[in-house]
Specification:
The chain has 8 helices and 7 strands. The protein is of the alpha+beta class. The radius of gyration is 33 Å and the shape is elongated.
Length: 206
């Protein structure tokens, strides 16, 4: 049959071909498992995320890959048993011993032979977590800076003679020291025109 005579159905890849394309070229990790935790297959993306070969993933199984100290694991397993699917975040152990945060989705299905299987999709979210941590750090720094600014707002008790500032504990501080402690301000020193004329009346004012 020539290409010009192919129907849309003829040109469409078979379900098996489409599955193989998605499985082998997908960005997310895909694993075919059984509910008990055994892993039957893993795609290249899962191997990359786990830092393991396909054979090593199949050998380790769920118990060897998922951080068992993560309390969310049992909650997700219970949810999948109850509803047939689950979605959340867990930590996985890579071959080098490092722990990686992942987003995980799992669904239960039955094969044509009636056997129960589970499909697990995992996505590396370490970069997103790092960005969230950096955002939280910046927010904390801004909040601290705001608190320092607020500490200088309102009325400050100041000595009318020496211009020292009294803090909440009743101690007196030089104005420069007080501002330096409560803000990020640093001082540089010069001399204004009026003071120069008073201190050095015989010198040029250029």
């Amino acid at each position: 049959m020539s290409p010009s005579h192919l129907t849309e159905t003829d040109a469409r890849p078979s379900d098996e071909t489409l599955y193989q394309l998605l499985f082998h070229h997908g960005f997310d990790g895909l694993m075919l498992t059984v509910p008990s935790g055994a892993i039957l297959d893993a795609n290249p993306a899962a191997c990359r995320i786990m830092g393991r070969t396909r054979e090593e993933i199949l050998q380790e199984g769920r118990d060897g890959l998922i951080d068992s100290t993560d309390a969310r694991l049992q909650d997700l397993i219970a949810e999948r048993e109850r509803t047939g699917k689950a979605h959340g975040e867990l930590r996985v152990r890579r071959k080098d011993g490092s722990v990686l945060p992942v987003e995980l989705s799992s669904v239960v299905f039955h094969t044509p032979e009636g056997e129960k299987r589970t499909c697990i999709i995992i996505r590396d979210v370490s970069e997103r977590k790092a960005a969230e941590a950096e955002r939280d750090r910046l927010i904390a720094e801004l909040q601290q800076a705001l608190e320092r600014v607020r500490s200088l707002s309102g009325l400050l008790p100041m000595c009318a003679a020496c211009r020292k500032i009294r803090d909440d504990a009743g101690k007196w501080h030089d104005l420069e020291s007080y501002i330096r402690i409560h803000t990020e301000t640093q001082f540089s020193h010069g001399i204004c025109l009026e003071c120069r004329q008073k201190l050095y009346p015989g010198h040029s004012h250029d």
